[in-house]
Amino acid sequence: MLVHPDGPAIEIAENRMYGRVDVLRRRRDTLSNLLDMCELKRVTSGKLEIRTIQNPLTYEAVVVNPASAAGTMYLKHYVFKLMSPQGPSPSSSFEPQMDIGMNSSRKN
Question: Into how many domains does the chain fold?
Fold first, then answer.
């Protein structure tokens, strides 16, 4: 399953990655992957099912020897980049549960 290259999800998928954002590059890469998958489907006599989805995927999975007792699945979780290096902004009433003295100059 791949994110559909012509839908809005491809933009979301590209924007969540760190680094330079290039939606056109992501779209070209996805189309290239779809062509590769079509070729794999052809050489495996149709034993490969290819689908696209209009939502960003949160995991990538690779399965090796799925019919074998020794089969293995590899998962990769796609993270979403934070807009701020400090992370989400806590509410103004947020106070740390423990002060270990690193902010001793902070006024309470």
Answer: 1
